[in-house]
């Protein structure tokens, strides 16, 4: 597949409902000139058509750490990272630096490298109200992550559309979100 630019986007996906439609996000991002690579948590992988995504992106969906004999992770360097949908579990582990999955490990690493990173949580209201979740979002923002999440949205609208996610990423890269990474509810 011919890309109109060399921009590389890591799409990190967790085990929540919106993951089953990740193909739509990949196609939108590719249409905007991104070369997309997909990394999934073990639960996120259960929502995906791995073969279809590999065919679309030109590379396998990464779900595990590289083996000791592998000299490279096989991924081109990322220009940006989007984790969507991001689950309660992944947000909390990421904020604490618990890298027990390749997805969370990459989130920690790329945030530490200063790669623009957008988190788009998809969590139940009960989990969004949990103190640990709010603290984790604050911690991630303080480390430079951008968060697109409206905890007051009705459950069927809590996850923004893939187009809104891509628009938010464009805003981050163009500097339109300004200053402190924002949350929709702010």
Automatic annotation (TrEMBL):
Top-rank taxon, per record: Bacteria
Q: Name one Pfam family in it.
A: Flavoprotein
Question: Which InterPro entries does this chain map to?
Answer: Flavin_trans-like (IPR036551), Flavoprotein (IPR003382)
Q: Where in the numbering of this chain does the Flavoprotein domain appear?
A: 12-107
Q: Name one GO molecular function term.
A: catalytic activity
- What SUPFAM superfamilies does the database record attribute to this sequence? Homo-oligomeric flavin-containing Cys decarboxylases, HFCD (SSF52507)
Q: What is this protein called?
A: Phosphopantothenoylcysteine synthetase/decarboxylase
Lineage of source species = Bacteria, Bacillati, Actinomycetota, Actinomycetes, Streptosporangiales
């Amino acid at each position: 597949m011919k890309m109109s630019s060399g921009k590389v986007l890591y799409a990190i996906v967790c085990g929540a409902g919106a993951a089953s439609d990740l193909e739509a996000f990949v196609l939108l991002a590719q249409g905007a000139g991104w070369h997309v690579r997909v990394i999934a948590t073990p639960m996120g992988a259960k929502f995906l058509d791995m073969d279809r995504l590999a065919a679309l992106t030109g590379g396998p969906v990464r779900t595990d750490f590289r083996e000791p004999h592998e000299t490279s992770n096989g991924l081109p360097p990322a220009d940006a990272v989007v984790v969507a949908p991001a689950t309660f579990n992944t947000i909390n582990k990421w904020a604490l630096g618990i890298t027990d999955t390749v997805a969370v490990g990459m989130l920690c690493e790329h945030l530490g490298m200063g790669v623009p990173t957008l988190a788009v949580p998809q969590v139940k209201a009960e989990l969004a109200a949990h103190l640990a979740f709010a603290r984790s979002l604050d911690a991630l923002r303080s480390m430079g992550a951008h968060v697109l999440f409206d905890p007051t949205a009705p459950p069927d609208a809590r996850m923004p559309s893939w187009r809104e996610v891509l628009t938010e990423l464009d805003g981050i890269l163009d500097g339109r979100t300004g200053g402190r990474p924002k949350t929709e509810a702010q």
